[in-house]
Structure formats: C-alpha cells, structure tokens
Write a structure and sequence with these properties.
48% of the residues lie in helices and 18% in strands. The chain is of the alpha/beta class. The protein has 3 domains: 84 residues, Arc Repressor Mutant, subunit A (Orthogonal Bundle); 96 residues, D-Maltodextrin-Binding Protein, domain 2 (3-Layer(aba) Sandwich); 101 residues, 3-Layer(aba) Sandwich (D-Maltodextrin-Binding Protein, domain 2). The chain has a 5-stranded mixed sheet with strand order 4-3-5-12-6, with helices on both faces. A 3-stranded antiparallel sheet has the order 10-7-11, sandwiched between helices. The termini are far apart. The mean pLDDT is 88.
C-alpha cells in the first residue's frame, strides 16, 4: 500500500535536489523525510534515491512514483474544482468555436438562455474556419464547435443538422435576383465572391463547381461573411451562404437569396462537435445541450418553411 505522505516527501526531494532542502521547503525535520523514504524503499524492495556528488536524485523507480504523485495531485485538484462548481453553480469557463454564418443564431438562440442560468461563467467565443475548429477540438483547445460544411470523418462526437440550401446572395438589382433557382454553370457568367479556402461553405462551393467540370474563379475573396454580404449589397458580385445566414439583410430588402440547383447545396449541414475524450464542466454540458436543442428546433423550422 502506497501512502501519500512518503511519496509526497519523495516528490519534494526530487524537486529540490536534496533531503535537507526538501525539509526546509516543507518545514519539517530532515530525519522525518529520510525515515519515511527508507520505509518506502523497504516496502517496495527498490532504491528510490541515489547520491550524485552533493546532490540527491531519484532513481527510475523514484521518478515513476514522483510523476504518479504529481499527476494524482493534479487530478484531485481538478476533481475538487468540479465539485465546487456543482456546489456553487459555477463552471469557471466554457470555450467554443463558431462558423461565421452561425454567430447570430448562437447569440439569439443559445447564449441569452445560457447567461440566465450561468451568469458568472466566462464564455470564450472565437469565430474561425472549419479547419481551425477541427484542429482546436482535436487538440483539446476548445470545449466544442459549431461548424458549417463538409467535415469528412474525424474521430469526434457530433450532431448534424440540415441547414441548406446554399444560395446565391445578390443585390435586388442584380440580373439573377428574379430567378427561383440558378445552376452552377450559369454562375460563371457573373462576378463571384469567395470566402477563404478553409471555410466549410467555400469547400461546398468548390465541390459543386468541380462536379460540373468547372473551377471556381472569384472576382473577390474575403474571410468574413459580413464582408461578402457588403460586396453583394453594393452590386459587386454574387456571394454564397444560406438564406438564414443573410436573413436580416433580406428582410430589409437589401439582398435576395436564390437557391443553387445542386444536390450539395440542398443537403448542406451544420455540425455540433466535441472531443469525446474531453470532460465537460456542468456549465459546458449545459451549453452543449442548449446548442443541440436550439439547432434541432431550428432545423425543424427551416424544414417546415
């Protein structure tokens, strides 16, 4: 049976490079540390310390014990923080990544409700590209992500929601504004507005053009949906997004959305993503459930309309 106290002494000796210095840091007699470590060595039948000149270092067995002690202490501290969160309805922080076209929906449908339940939780919101989101989820840099576009088959937990069709978004005065749909080949007669290649929506656009034996040649490229919409409002070209993403400008009569006549456009999805190995705080779990329910309900509303 390994007891925390002698292993803790061993860890401190390794950290300080000597029994006396460890004793000074812990405020105890050096003989106490020596005696406890000697008893531990007898119990394990392994040497845990060796002297190198005037310095004491850990043996391989000693290093293994010290590392386990450190990791166990970290786990206990994390557990204590989780339990404290549960007692006080606090969650520390929640981090998430969003696709640019989903920000307004997140704020209106999720963030307002979350803030009422968890008013003291810090929420870190970053808008990024599809690839940035996948990288951050895989590396554990963020709790969750809400992305639009093709994601392949990453080893992530996800819920997918129908979010199409993708539309050609133009000024009401644009030549295609009166159409009910438009084909991919017909778009080549006009000036096009692209998003950065790392955006999920742009990946969809590239795939649609490729399926028709064409290449997407834009007149403009930008890294924000708001910039793409402004270019369209000015009559400078055709941008691409869902009607829902541009709904405010459409409602004000500033833009018109013409659905693309292509299977990829009509079946486009957004995805709620997380790393299944990452443990959620209570607040993060609540955020996840709010996101899932909000986008499930929004999918139903879009389908019905």
């Amino acid at each position: 049976m390994l007891h925390d106290k002698p292993v803790g002494y061993l860890y401190e000796v390794g950290l300080q490079g000597g029994i006396r210095r460890a004793a000074d840091m812990l405020g105890i007699n050096p003989s106490v540390i020596s005696r406890q470590i000697a008893q531990l060595e007898r119990a394990l039948q392994l040497p845990l310390l060796e002297r190198r000149g005037r310095t004491v270092v850990l043996t391989e067995a000693g290093r293994l014990l010290a590392q386990d002690h450190y990791e166990s202490r970290q786990r206990r501290e994390k557990l204590e923080n989780h339990l404290k969160d549960l007692r006080h309805m606090r969650g520390g922080s929640v981090s998430l990544r969003l696709g640019g076209g989903l920000v307004t929906t997140f704020i209106e449908e999720v963030m307002c409700a979350f803030a009422r339940t968890w008013p003291n939780v810090f929420v870190d919101i970053t808008v990024g590209s599809m690839q940035e989101m996948l990288n951050d989820i895989a590396s554990g840099e963020t709790d969750m992500a809400l992305a639009f576009g093709p994601i392949g088959t990453p080893e992530l937990k996800r819920h997918s929601f129908q979010w199409g069709p993708i539309c050609a978004v133009v000024s009401p005065l644009h030549p295609i504004a009166a159409l009910t749909t438009i084909t991919i080949p017909a778009l080549t007669d006009h000036r096009l507005i692209a998003l950065s290649e790392s955006f999920g929506l742009q990946r969809h656009m590239n795939a649609m053009f490729k399926s028709e034996g064409l290449q997407f040649h834009p007149a403009y490229r930008c890294n924000l949906f708001s910039t793409a919409m402004s270019l369209s409002q000015a009559g400078l070209g055709i941008s691409f997004m869902t009607k829902y993403a541009a709904r405010e400008a459409i409602a004000e009569g500033l833009l018109v959305a013409v659905p693309l006549a292509h299977p990829i456009a009509s079946s486009a999805q957004c995805h709620l993503l997380r790393n299944s190995d990452r443990r959620f705080t209570p607040a993060a779990h609540h955020m996840w459930r709010l996101l899932h329910n909000a986008f499930r309900d929004k999918q139903s509303a879009l389908t019905d309309s």
